[in-house]
Design goal:
The chain is of the alpha+beta class and 240 residues long. The protein has two domains: 72 residues, 3-Layer(aba) Sandwich (Glutaredoxin), CATH 3.40.30.10; 149 residues, Up-down Bundle (Glutathione S-transferase Yfyf (Class Pi), Chain A, domain 2), CATH 1.20.1050. The protein contains nine helices and four strands. Strands 2-1-3-4 form a four-stranded mixed beta sheet, with helices on one face. Helix 1 runs parallel beside helix 2, helix 3 crosses helix 5 and helix 4 crosses helix 5. The protein is globular and about 45 Å long. The relative contact order is 0.14.
Length: 240
């Protein structure tokens, strides 16, 4: 049965503006699962009101992590089945670092950063996608919602210098841990690699400079990993 993947639009030479959507589509290609992508227009028709989500087996499954867990179990753990319990623990810990902390520093860079008002406004317009009057109003509303979410998360309560330092510490930890390895665990990429790819690509492919991007570019191993993943699983985009 074909999986229907509901996700947001491509942006910045990546298959998706959302790192969670990018992670999930990467997983589907890594696991060689048959899928059809559909772009979300308007509010997401999922239980969380967010993308990505999939339609499969006559039901809707939402949240990229839960979707991957569901598909891993359903298809015999094609990616993470070879990992030891210790490796699974490390993989989960780093995925949480990327998605629950580093992600929010990237959100700040793309949506809020007061040093780049024109760029963040352009990003908001590109992501929201409305035209005319809605194209002026909706991005402002969404930016306000994002700023509120950052505040409630906690990272948005810091001054920019501190926020960048916190994000850079995440990137440094990932770079030092990955070292000279081609993939996170063993000789083949796993779910961790899909997550790392989506997190790092979202930073380095954002087309303006900010402290987190500058620090990430210094970790050549992370940039190379991102480029390997793009070339391997999205060859149609690897040269863009």
């Amino acid at each position: 049965m074909t999986i229907i993947l509901h996700q947001y639009r491509p942006l910045y030479g990546l298959p998706n503006a959302s790192s969670f959507c990018l992670k999930l589509e990467t997983y589907l290609r890594m696991a060689k699962l048959d899928y059809k992508a559909q772009q979300i227009k308007g509010p997401a028709k999922s239980s969380t009101g967010k993308g990505p989500y999939i339609e499969v087996d006559g039901k809707i499954v939402t949240d990229s992590g839960l979707i991957i867990d569901y598909l891993e179990q359903k298809h015999g753990h094609p990616l993470d089945g070879k990992l030891t319990l210790s490796e699974r623990a490390q993989s989960l810990a780093f995925q949480r670092l990327i998605e629950e902390h580093l992600y929010w520093a990237t959100v700040y860079a793309r949506w809020i950063d007061p040093m780049h008002p024109a760029e963040t406004a352009s990003y908001a317009f590109a992501v929201v996608g409305f035209k005319g009057l809605l194209g002026k109003l909706v991005p402002r509303i969404v930016k306000g919602q994002v700023k509120k979410a950052l505040w409630h998360h906690g990272l948005g309560r810091h001054q920019p210098e501190q926020l960048w330092q916190l994000g850079i510490a995440d990137v440094d930890a990932l770079g030092h841990w990955l070292g000279a390895r081609e993939w996170g665990f063993g000789n083949q990429p796993t779910v961790f690699d899909a997550t790392l790819f989506s997190g790092i690509a979202a930073i380095v492919r954002t087309p303006w400079d900010f402290p987190l991007k500058a620090a990430t570019l210094k970790h050549r191993n992370l940039v190379d990993h991102s480029e390997r993943m793009l070339a391997r699983y999205f060859p149609e985009l690897a040269q863009t």
